[in-house]
Automatic annotation (TrEMBL):
Protein name, UniProt field: Indole-3-glycerol phosphate synthase
Domain named Indole-3-glycerol phosphate synthase: residues: 4-256
UniProt record similarity statement: Belongs to the TrpC family.
Enzyme class at the top of the EC tree: lyase
Lineage: Bacteria, Pseudomonadati, Bacteroidota, Cytophagia, Cytophagales
Length: 272
């Protein structure tokens, strides 16, 4: 059993346990459930330069502890101040050290910024959870789901007012799982079975994603040169977590990257 299979198996156990503790009706009665969501797809499609989706991530299965010395409220507030178009916050506890508490702290600190619940979604129940904690976008990982599950979960997400980011790793996942029900297509440069990363994954898939979808690139992004290279291949958003989180001041790391991006004269300056 590879790491992805282990995560999904554990996630299904978690969902089963959560359903026994908290009903959907209780989730629907939560304070944030009726909160109007903010469109990440619109923010990205209107962008005239690369935009950064900054992630709060404490640890990962491949790297172990990345940064356990900072708080989600401060880091995400700094991210937004440095120009992040959106925030991604891990809510998986066992493998990534995330929690609903982390997400809630970031949500409270950044009420006007689109936020992605970063987790392994395998059940409709998790969509109600996402809505209840103030998420705007949910992640569907093609490697974890069948095409039918991608479609049904996307439809339910839209019913709840949530946007859908479909994550793919190769051409097969893209062709099998891409549906008009999703809003954003993310190409993960990290192979979730081996955890090896290569931005050439995004390059190879760029022309296979229809222009009607907003495209983002995820994982393994190290600097402005790589981002500009992928921007020229049609990617509008770039999800970055570990590169920022492994520093003592993740917000400052984003600010430095934004400065590097503005120095590329062939791109429109970012509005920070």
């Amino acid at each position: 059993m590879n790491i992805l299979e282990k995560i999904v198996a554990r996630k299904k156990e978690e969902v089963s346990e959560s359903k026994k503790r908290v009903s959907i009706a209780q989730l629907e009665n939560s304070r944030l459930f009726t909160r109007p969501t903010i469109s990440l797809a619109t923010a990205l499609s209107d962008a005239a330069a690369p935009r950064i989706i900054s992630e709060f991530k404490r640890k990962s299965p491949s790297k172990g502890i990345i940064n356990d010395q900072v708080t989600p409220a401060q880091v995400t507030r700094d991210y937004v101040a440095a120009g992040a178009v959106a925030l991604s916050v891990l809510t998986d506890t066992d493998f990534f050290g995330g929690s609903f508490a982390d997400f809630g702290s970031a949500r409270e600190a950044n009420t006007g910024t689109p936020m992605l619940r970063k987790d392994f979604m395998v059940d409709e129940y998790q969509l109600y959870e996402a809505k209840s904690i103030g998420a705007d976008v949910i992640l569907l990982i093609a490697a974890c789901l069948s095409p039918a599950e991608v479609k049904s979960l996307s439809r339910k997400a839209h019913e709840l007012g949530l946007e859908v980011l479909l994550e793919v790793h190769n051409a097969e996942e893209l062709s099998e799982c891409l549906t008009d029900e999703v809003d954003i297509v993310g190409v993960n440069n990290r192979n979730l079975k081996t955890f090896v990363t290569s931005i050439e994954t995004s390059v190879a898939l760029s022309e296979q994603i229809p222009a009607s979808f907003v495209k983002i690139s995820e994982s393994g992004l190290q600097g402005a040169d790589e981002i500009v290279h992928l921007y020229k291949h049609g990617y509008k958003g770039f999800l970055i977590g570990e590169t920022f989180m492994k520093t003592a001041d993740p917000g400052a790391a984003l600010a430095n990257l934004q400065l590097e991006l503005t120095q590329h004269s062939n791109l429109n300056p970012l509005v920070l």
